[in-house]
Amino acid sequence: MNLLLFSFTPEVQSALGAGQPVLALESTIFAHGMPYPQNIAFAEETEKLVRSLGVVPAIIAIIEGKICIGITRKQLDHLARGANIHKVAVRDLSHVLSRGLSGATTVSATMRVAKFAGIDVFSTGGIGGVHRGWKSTGDVSQDIRELSRTSVVVVSSGAKAILDLPKTVEYLESFSVPVLGYKTNFFPAFYSRSSGIRIEVCVDSPQEIAKQFNIHRGLGLSTAFLIANPVPQEKELSYDVVSAFIEKALYSAKETGITGKKLTPFLLSEMYRLSGGKSLKTNIALALNNIHLGARVAIALSKKG
Ligand code: PSU
Ligand code: MN
Fold first, then answer.
1. How far is the CA of 219 from the centre of ligand 1 (A)?
2. Closest ligand to the CA of 262
3. Which of 59, 87, 107 to mutate to test the pocket of ligand 1 (most atoms within 8 A of CB)?
4. 217 C-alpha vs ligand 1 centroid, how far in Å?
5. Is 158 left (phi over 0), alpha (psi -120 to 50) or beta?
6. What pLDDT, in 10s, does the model give residues 266-276?
7. What is the pLDDT of residue 66?
8. Per-residue pLDDT tens for 19-44?
9. Which residues of 273-293 are buried (b: 16+ CB within 10 A; e: fewer)?
10. Ligand 1 atom index nearest CA of 263
11. Active-site residue flag, 160
């Protein structure tokens, strides 16, 4: 590993050195998935929440050609404003690093960097997956591929509702990724608590997640664990309302010819516009809920040694 490519904040470095619990957080969720300046407030709140639980937050991003594990307030501001901030999935890492550019990491790149750094748990909003219309476009997120080969615990509210959820769940099975419902037997639909798709494994505590993950690793299995944690009930948006917005957002994307890596940020911003800001409130609530659970899983895993 070329350590010169990495930059740790002193807080993260000392926590990792001392074996204290650390929670990885991605930067695309706020840099490309939320409007400015609400995204700054969100990122700051995430760090505050993690610290209040006795865990060290590690926001992962690329700043001027360095992989940052933990970022400063100034770097956060730079990422949140979004000017010249690349969206960096695993395949984009070498390009962005070699040119000294800056970028926000998606689920796939954040997982990979967390693994490099020895961080076991990562909390996000929703993973990328199989896009609707995948049959003609072939658009399947790199997140799926990364979940199939990098063993970290990813705490999410399932996959974003803008996706083809049944297909995404099938892909997770094809790629041997364990999906654990947190106090649920249904795969969440991001903004809503359930997609109606059944999942087999339901867990009730961070300790149970840690126990299963330790067995998984003990067997030398290299896939990730996907924890599916539904949005809190009081913040959920009804599936019918959300579906209507998604249909409209997908139509606009088609009309304007938006595809590839621009598609997810475009659909999220359309959801924000069409819902009059409600989608953002729900997105923030579910992400904070996932961070809360992720921090508790990080503590449980650190106790296991
Ligand atoms: N979840 C959110 N908001 C986001 C994303 C996920 O609540 O913005 C981002 C994640 O970084 C995820 C990416 O990895 O969208 C997937 O993009 P794509 O579909 O292009 O692979
Ligand atoms: Mn894609």
1. 30
2. 1
3. 107
4. 26
5. left
6. 999 999 999 99
7. 98
8. 999 999 999 999 999 999 999 999 99
9. ebbeebbbebbbbbbbbbbbb
10. 20
11. yes
What would the DSSP string read from start to end of 64-113? TTEEEES--HHHHHHHHH-TTEEEE-GGGHHHHHHTT-EEEE-HHHHHHH
Domain 3-301 of CATH type 2.30.30.30: no
Confidence of residue 3 (pLDDT cuts 50, 70, 90): confident
Q: How far does the centroid of ligand 2 lie from the alpha carbon of residue 152, in Å? A: 22
Pairing of strands 56-63, 22-25: parallel
Annotated active-site residue 26? The verdict is yes
Q: Give the residue, out of 160, 192, 267, with the most ligand 1 atoms within 8 A of its beta carbon, to mutate for a pocket test.
A: 160
Whether pLDDT at 288 is above 80: yes
Contact 230, 157 (CB under 8 A): yes
Q: What is the pLDDT of residues 152-208, one digit of tens each?
A: 999 999 999 999 999 999 999 999 999 999 999 999 999 999 999 999 999 999 999
- Does ligand 1 lie within 6 Å of residue 158's CB atom? no
